[in-house]
Design brief:
Layout: H1 2-119, H2 123-131, H3 137-140
Length: about 140
Amino acid sequence: LLQTCKSMYQTKIESSSGQSTHLQKGLEKLHEVSQTVEQLKSAAEVKKKVLSEKQTLAEEALQRITAAMQRSAQRRQEVERMEASTKIEQDKNTEEKDGIEKELAEIQPILDAAKKAVGSIKPDHLNEIRALKMPPEPIHD
């Protein structure tokens, strides 16, 4: 009877030590997992801060881009207004040029005749006119 009790006791102790080893290994694994979770938490916090900074920079860049696009749109509108104004002025100048050329075409034969007439005056004729003490009215001027 004693031997049976002893063998049962030994079996129980062996069984308990096996469970104890198994439980000890499980606790070690839980401790390792807990450390890994803590490391991941700290890494996530750092990445969260970096993300926040990057997001702030991205928002600032977006604001600068938006402002630049607005300025560009305003400049484009100003250029379009200036082009329209320039087109109107160019049309006016073209009309004025056409009018002046028409007037010049009408006057040109008269100018050519006057040049020809002046070209036909000889120095002797000028000397004769200068010699007159009282030149006639048309010559006087």
